[in-house]
What we know:
Elements: H1 3-28, H2 37-51, E1 56-57, H3 58-65, H4 69-81, E2 85-90, E3 93-101, H5 103-111, H6 113-126, H7 130-152
Antiparallel strand pairs: 1-3, 2-3
Helix pairs in contact: 1-6, 2-4, 3-4
Amino acid sequence: MSESDAAAVADDIHAISRLLRRSVLAQTRRLPVPLTPPQAQAMQELVEAHRDGAWLTVSQLSARMGLAHSTVSGIVTRLVRLGLVRRTTRADDRRHVRIELADQVRDWVARDLPRLRRRPLALALAGMAGEQAAALRDGLALLRQLLETMETGETGETGRVEVPEAGRNQEGRTS
């Protein structure tokens, strides 16, 4: 695969990710608590941190959003007023404030968000022939496996990440 092929794949992955985020954002706008785009972005970052088992400070949230600390602090204040997040301080250092999802938001993330994220994919895949959907699934699984292998530093004898035999077709090309 050439550098231009890799660039095209990277562009496609970025575009798909952006389209999926926009789809979830559009669906969340229909929720009982309407959010401004910056509030929705803050909630998205907090949800992602929560899914990773973490929490964020205002400074960390500011860095992720690419906005000034004072701007993000105001966004968080409004989200607190809406009952979507809460500020908690560490018992040993009250200057250290973390932003956490409110209980009902954590419940919604666990119960409803996975379905909202899958919905646009399910609709798109429903428009594909069975073999196309299977090929896409297999290709994405292989790409993920290769990227995870690179991340752990495991390489084959050539010093390159090698495609497992199950991911090759009869001509020796990746499927």
